[in-house]
Amino acid sequence: MKITVITASIVLGFLFIVSANNVYKDFMKEDDLKRNEFADFDAFDEDDDFETDIKLEEEKTEQDEQPSSFNAEDAVVEDADEFDHFEDEDEFEGYEQSSESKSSSKKSPEISIVQLPEQLSFHYYVEMALIAGIVIYFANFIRGKQKNSNLVIAWFNTNKSLLNDNFSLVGDDGKVTTISSNTMKKDSEHLYTLWCSGRTCCEGMLVELQFLKRQDLFSVLANYCSDVSDQIHFKFALAKEDMDSYVFCVAPKKNAVKFSKELVDLGTFCPERKSGDKFELPSIFNVMTEINEVAMSFFDGKTVAAFNRYSDLIEYVHISDRYSGPKSPDDNPTKPLEYKRMFLVGFSIPDNGKTAEEIMEYMHPLMNLVFYWLEKIKRFRLSKEGKMKADRNRTRLEEAFLKTTHLARNEAAAARREEKIRKEKERILNEDDPDKQRRWEEKEMKKQMKRKIPKMKQLKVKSL
To answer: Which 3 state secondary structure label does DSSP give 284?
Structure first.
């Protein structure tokens, strides 16, 4: 499917460039024809002006040759032929030249048509490539947006009855006080959320559908170089009476390593990662558990069969009573962390070329499995030894936190005290009174000597 989209985009861009080139050629041909038509009219105008000038010159010549007054006495009759003047070359000087120029002027001037090269310059190709890129980008935006929307609609329609059976309120977006109309909340073109509440074993459930950024062409190209897929995340908020105190997680190896480094509860209570082979799971999974009996109870026959069948779709299953999110950049926090009891599940959505409805129908058993695990968490209770171990771990963590914060407070108090002494010393040294400076130094020396003397307790003994 991805290769088809890229091929179609390249073909569309090529056809756009070819069509633009043909349009440009037609435009240039029409421009040449227009210029040739107007050239004919210009030639006619030049001929008319030239003939008018010739007539004016001939009339002027006749007027100059005609005598101003006639004298009969001076007239001489010659016996020569009266047409001999036509043979005089001086009489018709310049006549042949003017007649030749007149005949030549009657001929239409030759028009030379400059043929432009068929190839367009480089900047035209750049502009057409940019226009084609913009067209392809917006075409991909519409296509990606539509595909993500189809996946959301298919998921909701497939699991609508299951959600209505488990929750009394489905699709609460925080803006209404009554039952919503079962619609997903759109946070962006690739992120949709759904909040459900009104069920036993949990305070509420948040569903996040995180799709690939198909509406972004650059993200689509980057996805070819990375192994990413669409995902669905479930977050259940649990109450204190809904689960015991323990931390448990099962995830593929790459996710398990990432979670143990980033999440506070897993890094503190479950530093050891066990292979899934010990629990009859595929070898790609790692199990992290604070108490072993939790893992033994969680992996029953139904769960093991689901992990073996959907091993490529299960991203993680995380149960924790000390969930606080990712680690803070501050290694020594002065305030205690806020803990929540959470049940987190993540699945991948397969991209196997099937329709959205077929994909969601294939994943529907995993939705039933999520509520099956939720009921199991509600029913499971630790043994006496398990509760004692969990309490010791949490007590040790609180003591370590108090010790760390106590040291941090002492260091902060010492820093403030030194800063106060430094400012007071600068103030005394800036004064010109040497006696005052000497008294201040003696006073500070006595304070330091007093701090170095160990404190002794005095015991009073009553006499008999």
So the answer is: coil
